[in-house]
Amino acid sequence: MKKLAIITTHPIQYNAPWFRLLAQRRLITIKVFYTWGQLEKGAKYDPGFGTNVDWDIPLLDGYDHYFVKNIAPDPGSHHFKGIDNPTLTAEIEHWNPNAILVFGWSFKSHLKALRYFKGKKKILFRGDSNLLDEKLGFSLKKTLRRVFLRWVYTHVDKALYVGTANKEYYQEHGLKNAQLVFAPHAIDNDRFMQHGSSNKREESGIPQGAIVFIFTGKFETQKDPQLLLDAFIRLTDTNAHLLMVGSGELEVQLKKKAGQQPLEISSRIHFLPFQNQLKMPEIYRMGDVLVLPSKGETWGLAVNEAMACSKAVLVSDKCGCAVDLVEVGMNGFVFKSRDGNDLLKKMDILLLNHQEIAGMGVRSLQIIQSWRFENICIAIEQSLA
User: Fold this and answer.
1) Are residues 170 and 196 both part of a single domain?
2) Dist. CA 23–CA 7, nearest whole Å
3) Helices and strands of the chain, counted as H and E runs
4) CA 328 – CA 339 distance, rounded (Å)
5) Residue 56: which residues within 8 A CB-CB, separation 6 or more?
6) How many domains does the chain have?
7) What predicted TM-score, i.e. pTM, was given to this entire model?
8) Is residue 280 domain-shared with residue 359, that is, in the same domain?
9) Average pLDDT in the 282-288 region?
10) Are the C-beta atoms of residues 268 and 234 closer than 8 Å to each other?
11) What's the helix, strand, coil split of the chain in %, to 5?
């Protein structure tokens, strides 16, 4: 079997399952080289959630992996020099793969690996960047970045694009259609479909007949949960409830604003702390409509998760998933980022037609069926054929 070395920073709950599946399929042999070496054991502090995160699903079982020594003084994926592995290329050479799959270029060791293996091994690349949040018009900084990124992607033989916006990004930076392979952003659809059927609304003070808008994720500026809270406060439908699940830098501010509202509004706003992966199917089933109001989001895998739980979705137009996963009027709506009036309008439409929300959830489940881990594996296997 052909051998594929995978270079990525650390175990991620969305990637580890398809690494395992790729190994189980036994059409290629893989070994994952984790470059943020200090994360071999223990929980990782996540600044977005503001807490240590120790995922409750297995991230290292079922596939060959190795934690490469990272000598960075300030280790981490938050800056270019935070991933510095002097032995990485030598260790990959020793394993002698046929091809390399690199996740992201914006780390010292990853860019070095791209340059080192160009022309020596087939190079696949995985990233989910897009141009949705890029400012219009000319700027010298944007032009120089374009030139630099075009140079970076000359080192790539095949780019595994996650969706339409990501594909357009690669095309803008010089990659040809023949170099682009669709490997969809995906989550464990089966786990979200089959688990979490119990309803915990009553425990949170939410009536069974309410229409619940739900936000899950980091309470941070980029995800803009404030926009959602402000829009909800302006709703006039007293059957609407808001469930905000997560933690982060804006948590105190959000809870304070919710608590300052009149009782008829504040009693319909509910907060739950960060929930681990195994609990999320149950959490999504507490809601009716997932809202992702991000100012800029490379994709938005919470949308995949909610759709696998048969939920309607309201998604900002700055989220990479919007063009691929939202069929307007069929399983939800897309609204203008940072535009509370547009979000409020779409929420009102859903409330006025609340009897159709369940049907939208059914359509969500139908759409998400083809966005599966298996399709990522097939894309990689065919790229090595």
Assistant:
1) no
2) 15
3) 15, 15
4) 18
5) 276, 277, 278
6) 2
7) 0.93
8) yes
9) 95
10) no
11) 40, 20, 40
